[in-house]
Design goal:
Length: 441
């Protein structure tokens, strides 16, 4: 009798343990239903700005890597932890896509990542992550969108707005494409029944921003002779986009649009030759009227490259213009001047076009603002937000506010960065994503 009770007791324990094991096994995969996420818990070292042979990881995985030269500590004594990397998805033809843009939602709970296909053809995708715990991002869902290279994304109240290129539109010259679609915050799926789209004049829809109840979209031309491209204000009513007739501004080649305070700024950089741009300026508008800008900031000292990502960010009351090989221009919208500038990297042994300033963002570690600059294969530059805001010098560039660079590995190019609070997500081309967490011990 006792023996049978003992066997029954052991059987119950075994079943409980087995069920617990299965539950834990299932939980260990819930952050990555597609097998693309690798979690890390690795403190990164800042690399000196002129150190071309070192990388930031404390666990070297590249034969060419070596211990980083001593650099300044991170601003505010912050610790920068590498928490995850995400492999890019492949499309239905098994072509690897490239991460192009990232949006972090205002509530800090979700990261939206969009992808495009490099080279011939077009194909896109959307990843939605739950980042409520910055140290453990959860990939909720990946959605492939065929024949749509997605260059930019923003999120507003559960709706995604996507901008990019769709080839084959029957309206000649309207390859710039914009889509809106709602998404399910619990599982990350896109609600196709809510989708709306519009084709605009231009070779590519390069950027977009939500401002004063309208969606503002920039488009770029395939040449200076293409008509009708520029800045568009769109309304979405009952599933249909309309262009606001009084809110269209013509430009030959807009790269980016950003909003801050009462200002809407667009970066124009026409460049049919590889380098430099023949036109480079930042136009600043007040309110919703696009008849003429309230200020025009001459950026001929900051020419951009042809067909390059050149994003504008807004932080601390200033516009930051990432102008590729020309570095970053810091513009004061109040007086319309270039207050200061930060040069592009100049690492020896690395071609200039591989170390360009493409995007600027910011993070925060226990109240300390941290500037982030995506600088291609030169890595992710990390700067002191307070020093940047106080920086002066106009077009004379300085790295005095920059503490160092995060370099992930040989050939890994940081093409875009988005930061919010302690979370930082960097797009590293076909290398996918790098997710970082900023903390102060």
């Amino acid at each position: 009798m006792k023996k049978s009770k003992f066997i029954a007791y052991c059987s119950i324990i075994f079943l409980v343990l087995a069920a617990t094991f299965l539950l834990l096994a299932g939980c260990s995969l819930d952050y990555d239903p597609e097998g693309r996420v690798t979690l890390h818990d690795e403190e990164l070292t800042l690399v000196d700005l002129d150190d071309s042979g070192s990388y930031s990881r404390t666990i070297p995985v590249w034969s060419a890597s070596r211990a980083a030269k001593a650099a300044k500590p991170a601003p505010g004594g912050a610790t920068i932890t590498y928490v995850a990397e995400v492999e890019p998805p492949a499309d239905s033809l098994d072509r690897k896509l490239q991460a192009s843009h990232i949006a972090l939602t205002s509530n800090g709970k979700y990261a939206i990542v969009v992808y495009m296909l490099t080279g011939a053809g077009s194909s896109g995708a959307v990843d939605i992550f739950n980042v409520s715990n910055p140290a453990r991002p959860v990939l909720l869902k990946n959605t492939l969108i065929p024949n749509f290279d997605i260059a930019a994304v923003i999120e507003d109240s559960g709706r995604l707005y996507l901008a990019g290129q769709r080839i084959g539109n029957p309206d000649i010259g309207k390859n710039a494409f914009v889509m809106a679609v709602d998404y399910n915050t619990s599982n990350g799926s896109l609600m196709e029944a809510t989708a709306a789209s519009i084709a605009l004049p231009g070779h590519f829809a390069t950027d977009l921003v939500w401002y004063n109840g309208r969606l503002y979209v920039t488009t770029g031309a395939y040449s200076s002779t293409q008509p009708g491209v520029g800045l568009f204000a769109l309304k979405l009513n009952n599933g249909t986009f309309t262009i606001e007739d009084s809110s269209v501004a013509s430009y030959p080649d807009l790269r980016s649009v950003a909003a801050g305070g009462e200002d809407l700024a667009v970066f124009e950089a026409q460049a049919e030759a590889p380098f430099p741009a023949s036109i480079a300026r930042l136009d600043i508008y007040k309110g919703s009227e696009l008849g003429s800008p309230s200020k025009t900031v001459n950026l001929t000292s900051f020419p951009a490259q042809a067909e390059a990502k050149s994003k504008v960010g807004y932080f601390g009351g200033l516009f930051f213009v990432a102008a590729n090989m020309s570095g970053v221009a810091i513009v004061d919208p109040d007086d319309g001047t270039v207050r200061a500038s930060i040069p592009a990297p100049r690492l020896t042994g690395l071609a200039p076009e591989l170390q360009t300033s493409n995007a600027v963002s910011s993070g925060n570690a226990s109240g300390k603002d941290i500037l982030l600059i995506a600088n291609g294969e030169a890595g992710l530059w990390v700067g002191d937000g307070d020093l940047v805001r106080d920086q002066r010098g106009g077009t004379i560039s300085s790295t005095s506010s920059i503490s160092g660079s995060i370099r992930f590995g040989a050939g890994e190019s940081v093409n875009y960065v988005a930061g919010k609070s302690s979370l930082v997500v960097a797009a590293v081309g076909t290398g996918g994503l790098k997710v970082l967490n900023l903390t102060v011990k």
